[in-house]
Structure formats: C-alpha cells, structure tokens
Amino acid sequence: MVYAKLRGRIAEKYRRQGDFARDMGLSQSTLSGRLSGARDWTRQDIANACRLLGISFDEIPVYFFNPCSCKIATEEATE
Q1: Secondary structure (3-state) at 27
Q2: Which residues touch 41 (CB under 8 Å, ≥6 apart)?
Q3: pTM for the whole thing?
Q4: Mean local confidence (pLDDT), 29-52
Q5: Please, what is the end-to-end C-alpha distance for the chain in angstroms?
Q6: Cβ-count burial of 34 within 10 angstroms (0-12 exposed, 13-18 middle, 19+ buried)?
Q7: Which of 22, 43, 63, 73 is most exposed, with minimal Cβ within 10 Å?
C-alpha cells in the first residue's frame, strides 16, 4: 500500500515523522516500515493514529485502505 495521504496528514500535524512515532509509542523504524508497506498496521495503531491526527472513523479507508493505492501496488507486482 501507498500511504501518501497519511504521510501528508502527519506532516500537517507534526513537524517531524519522529515526533509522530514517539506519540504513537513506536520506534521510527517501525513507523517507517508501516508507512512503506513493509509492516502491517494493527487495529490499535490505526485507532491511535486517527486520534492523534484527527482522522474520523469515516476517513479511515481513505488513509489506510485506499483502493487507488491497492491498484498501484497490484500493477507494480504484475510487471
């Protein structure tokens, strides 16, 4: 998955990604792995991120399960 919209929201609310990772209770490398798609997001981490970033329940799919992101990832995997 591509998390460009989530990265943008993090940049809006936090000066540095590391500050967001700290508030999430994650290491920078764990957050980086999640944002790059190398690690899965847990339900608890999604809920925590939404709370910290002011993302509503209805917006969760836009930030964490974007169909466009899935399509891009699928196309890249078949090339």
Answers
A1: coil
A2: 34, 49, 64
A3: 0.79
A4: 94
A5: 16
A6: buried
A7: 43
